[in-house]
Specification:
181 residues, 6-stranded mixed sheet, alpha/beta, 8 strands, Rossmann fold
């Protein structure tokens, strides 16, 4: 799902199926006939309640209503304890926390991925993953690859975990995470 037709044309090079919709409005048409959703939208701090919280919840509820089985949420590191983060991030993390909580109480098979600070460096294909990690960075491209891998990794169902740049291949890191290593 993308917000405008111009974003849809940008996605054509990836051979991705796109649906134009706005998270601040009804998104039911965007979830029909899909088995799984990766929710990676973000407000960039502009409308944390409208997009990061309400938009995510709107997407979760539409997915439930239309029988989508799988939902992978891009959250944020420390969304589970926003009060421990810098004041500048608190509203954003509270919005993410509320969306994560709604996903957890849904009928969907969920995974919540919480990356550290995002960079624009090229992908490495390697991460660290654990229920809790220290602060650090990770490339946007490696986050995207992790979200896709989590969608198809049954062992991540019902899990919330943090990811940072690391030295383990993404799929292997997810497998080790699910075994508690």
């Amino acid at each position: 799902m993308v917000r405008t037709d111009s974003y849809a044309s940008d996605m054509a090079e990836y051979d991705a199926e796109t649906v134009v919709a706005d998270l601040t409005e009804d998104v039911s048409h965007a979830v029909r006939d899909h088995d799984g959703i990766i929710f990676a939208a973000g407000s960039s701090g502009e409308d944390v309640e409208g997009v990061d919280r309400d938009g995510a919840i709107r997407m979760i509820e539409a997915a439930e209503a239309h029988g989508v089985g799988r939902f992978v949420m891009l959250s944020a590191m420390n969304a589970d304890e926003p009060e421990s983060s810098p004041d500048a991030l608190e509203d954003y993390l509270i919005a993410k926390q509320e969306a994560d909580k709604r996903l957890r109480t849904s009928d969907l098979t969920d995974t919540i991925v919480r990356p550290g600070a995002l960079t624009d460096e090229p992908a490495t294909g390697e991460i660290r993953a654990a229920a809790k990690l220290d602060r650090g960075e990770i490339t946007r491209a490696d986050v995207a690859r992790t979200l896709v891998a989590a969608l198809d990794t049954a062992e991540t169902h019902g899990k919330a975990f943090e990811i940072l740049a690391g030295d383990e291949p993404i799929e292997s890191a997810l497998e080790h995470l699910t075994r508690g290593e």
